[in-house]
Structures are given as structure tokens and as C-alpha cells.
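Q: Now give one record:
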Amino acid sequence: MELSIDEQARQLLEGFDQLDWNNQNIRYSSIRTPELLASFLAQCNERLRESILSNCFLHFGFTYRVDLIECFLPYINFRALFSQDWFYLSFLMEEGAVDVTTFLFDHEVPVDLPSYGDNTTMLFDACENGKVDIVDLLIERGANVNHICSNGSRPIFWALQCKDVRVLDRLIVAGVDLTVTGMFGHGVLSTAICFSGSSFEIIERLVQMRAPLDSYPLLRVVLNNKYTEEQRTKIIKLLTDNGYDISL
């Protein structure tokens, strides 16, 4: 005879608080339906539920399923939780989980909630990972495209690393400042050429937008050592044809 949902939940809970962290996660991750999860959480005492929230929810299982995450609503303040542990939000940005991110915004998670460590926001991670749909969602929800993190960097510098010009285009339309400097004092265009390994398409777009090229003394050195002769010739021609002075 098949066990009822409540009986299955009680079975999962037997000895749960005696398990180490890893085995708790293994058992917890076996839950696959919202009905079972709702019963499981309802039968937990408060202390155990807090342990599950801190040890399991943020790191394993249910990452992209709104129907399962909804089961936590009676027990969780998402804004307070993610203010203390930003790992899950960063993971969502890496994976491009639009539905779950939308759900969290609809339940009071601020779009510019800063990370606990370096004051970056979700837009930084979304840009770095080239998740265009997430970038669109964040901007639509009012993300600050010119947010400055604790080391002086901004989303634009993280966008240079993903090599997808569509991310850059979203930031440009949203009003990103292309005249700023990053954590080492170099501008957006210089960073794209010298540090980030950006695609030629990104460099070309920045030139089209007349992003300033700061007087970075090693520009020639980088062009001579980082790129093939064909790439170097192409970049130098792009810059000189558009009036940039690279005679450094």
C-alpha cells in the first residue's frame, strides 16, 4: 500500500536532525513535489526548519522550480534571508533562471540588493555570465546600471568579460555611463582592449558609442603582445579610423 503524502514526509523526517549536513541535503533533495515539500516543512519543528533553510535551501535542490520555492513562503522572508546569504542569487544569475528570479522580485527581494561581501548586485553576475534574458529582467525591474561596488567596479566592466555584445547593448540603452573608470583607474574602452579579452564586436560597439580611450601607456604593448597580427591591425584601424589617438 502506498504511503500518504504526510506519511512519506514523516518518513523523511525520521532522524533528520541527527544527520550531518551532507546527508541532510541528500535526503532533502529527494523531495520532488510541492505537496510532499509542504507536508515536510509543516511537520518540522522551528529549529529544524531554520536548519533546512540555512543548510539546504540556499545550496541544493529546487533551484529553478517556482512551485517548490512557493512552499517556503509561510516560513521565510526572502529579503532578509538573501541579505545574509547571497550565494543563491548569484547562482540564479549564473544559470539565467528568469522564472525564479521574477518570483523573488514579486516577493520583496530588491533588484539592487547588494551582496554581503563586495556590494555587487545581481546585475554584475548576470552581465558577467552573458545572461541576456536576466539582464533584460533586471533592467525592466529598475536595476541601477551604474551601481558601484566596494572595489570601484561597475556592471559595465563585468559585461566586457562575457563577450556577448547584446549585454553591452542592453546597458547602453538603459543609460550606462561609458566615461567611467574601473577599479584600476582604466576606462571602459581601454579595459575592453587590454584586460577583459572582449570580442571585437564589443570593442567596435564602444568605439561607435564614442567611449573615451584613456591614456593608458601600455596600450601599444598590449596590442603587440596579446593579439595576433591580424587582430592587432583590425583594432588599430578601427581606432584610428574613428579619430582615436593611439600614438602613446
Notes: The CA atoms of residues 223 and 232 lie 6 Å apart.
